[in-house]
Design goal:
It is built from 2 helices and 12 strands, in the order H-H-E-E-E-E-E-E-E-E-E-E-E-E. It has 234 residues and is of the alpha+beta class. The longest helix has 28 residues.
Length: 234
Amino acid sequence: MKKLNLIALLVAGALLTPTFSSLAAGLEGTEGVDNKDATSTGHITLGLDEDGNEGGDTEDPTDPILPVDPDEEDGEDEDGDTGNTGALRIDWVTPFEFGSHELSSGTQIYTLERNENPFVQVSDFRGTGQGWVLQVKASEFINDENKVLKGAELSLPAGTVSPYGENQSIKPESKAVVLSNELAEIMVATQDGGMGTWANEFDKESVTLTVPSGNYAGDYQAEITWTLTDAILN
């Protein structure tokens, strides 16, 4: 039995010898090669639904990113909140309040009384960089007796455009406009611009209502219409 064991060990050693030799040769071939590098991947999906369609938060309205008037914060007056949803929307438009004044013998220019930081806010969650245009127009100022405030002129200055957070998109342009019954551009986002949420804040003293003399007394109101177009106009 001892002889058989010795023979078995010798046979096993002979069989293992080529394997150790091959391994040694392989190690000698990698001498001096730098094998410290490796690769992996990172991945995220933004603005796509389960079917791969583009679009962001289309169900929830966006809160105003600028401070609103104190009574609006208390929930007493939320006229500026549009409640709009969808991937491209107008979130907020400040109502313009010019107060009460006596009739005058000359043309008067009135500025805002209640609004501390009037603004309009737009959100674009489409994620396409298509751009957009915000337009505005106004009806005539009419009182309870259907009298028109003749010659009245509502003017909005070019505003200060600011984003929500650290926005990497191109900033939209703000334009001055004198409101009429025709739509006029007031805010424009070019290609690759205006993505995310942006507020266009108007200087309070520069939002003016010019009223000539010779008008009837009364409580006048105009309807201001804001229209958001989902592409750059030519």
